[in-house]
Amino acid sequence: MSHTNPLPPAAGTVQVASALRRKRLGALDAVLLLAAVATYFFADLYLALATSVLIMIIFALSLDLVQGYCGIETLGHAAFFGSGAYAAGLFALHVSPDPLLGLVAGAVVAAGVGLITGIVVLRVSGLTQIMLTLACATLLYEAGNVAKSITMGDDGLTGYTIAPVLGRFTFDIYGHTAYLYALAVLLVVYLFTQCLVNSPFGLAVQGIRENAMRMSLLGVRVGLRRLMLYTLAAALAGVAGALSAQVNNIVALDTLSFTLSANVLVMLALGGTGRLYGAALGAIVFMVLSDRIAAIDPTNWLAALGVLLILVVRFAPDGLIGLVDRFAARVAPVRRRVQRTTAADATGNPNATTTDKEVTP
Questions:
Q1: Helix 200-210 × helix 222-248 angle, to 10°
Q2: Where are the transmembrane segments (predicted)?
């Protein structure tokens, strides 16, 4: 007689561990991490730019969750970035200068904005949805501009100070602490998003992106799942905005602007949607090229970026991460042939092959 075993108390922990095993850190993760460490030690003059890149990676990751993994089209993602930034700035000004508490405040406020706007935005689709997201961001922008007694309007929110991280690491003028702080937050956000997209919840959301009607017939509460992911992505965008407020000691009205929403869309288009790597690569390429091209030609740098975007869309519709995948697909057969040759030389058997299976002791 068959019977089922009850779930252990730590079933949730087991599911999280299983999700992480399905997406182990690979070679590209190691390359990006080494590049981040090398930047800290060998690019002291560019730490401010590097910190901005890290913040934009978090912002692009949050947009990728919404657009790449759930298929929600948006032109107003800056609403959550700006909400988190103003929340962190006002929290430091009136409540506490602690940076970690400021991050939590930014995430909570942005999640609240995402929840409220998501109830309206996710009821529609297509062009109507895009225009509603743009309308929500525009309303927040105008509210920030009008409420000058709170946000200081066009002058930007200033006058607050940020306490040392964990009470020990003071923000210095060279940007060392800010860079390491942003890198640590990015690593936490990245691991969280990896776990999220590979969890049963994340896989269900991806199924909704492919065919919402089929997932609904399978008993999945499509509207609730989309709203949950939208709120989570808004919270991550709020974390990015809070980081920006803490690192720069100013919150400008531009954090709520359409330009910022468009920029992060371009980052995602350059890197590739539906892949967390794509969000990271797109943010790096966009931010670094914007800085370098603007330094060379302050007048026409946007035209150069436009040409780059056209080339990527034409020759790499899957983004830069698609090019990396195609290169890896071409290299893989060569590596397998090398492995077979090495195994044959070691055993003397020309038919010997290597295997990736793990041997359990």
A1: 110
A2: 30-63, 75-93, 100-122, 178-206, 227-245, 265-289, 301-317
Residue 62 belongs to domain spanning? 45-257
pLDDT given at position 217: 87
The 8-class DSSP code of residue 169 comes to B
Cα 23 to chain centroid, rounded = 16
Q: Are 280 and 320 in contact (CB under 8 A)?
A: no
> What pLDDT is recorded for position 294?
85
Could you give the C-alpha distances from 349 to 178, 335, 357, in angstroms and in order?
Answer: 56, 19, 20
Classify residue 18: in a domain, yes or no.
no
The label of the residue with tokens 């999280």 reads 16
pLDDT digits (tens, 9 = 90+) for 213-226: 888 888 889 889 99
Confidence of residue 360 (pLDDT cuts 50, 70, 90): very low
d(CA 358, CA 361) in angstroms, rounded, equals: 9
What total of structural domains would you count in the chain?
1
pLDDT digits (tens, 9 = 90+) for 263-276: 999 999 888 888 88
Instruction: Specify if 273 maps to a domain.
Output: no
CA-based nearest residue to 241, from 231, 252, 230, 226: 252
Q: Does 67 fall in a domain?
A: yes
Tokens of 195: 């776990």
Residue 60 included in any domain: yes
**CA 138 to CA 131: how far, in whole Å?**
10
Instruction: Tell me which residue has tokens 């009821």.
Output: 123
The answer to whether residues 54 and 182 touch, using CB atoms and an 8 Å cutoff, is yes
Q: In sequence order, which ranges of 253-319 are alpha helices (DSSP H)?
A: 258-271, 276-296, 301-315
* pTM of the complete model: 0.83
Distance CA 200, CA 153 (A): 43
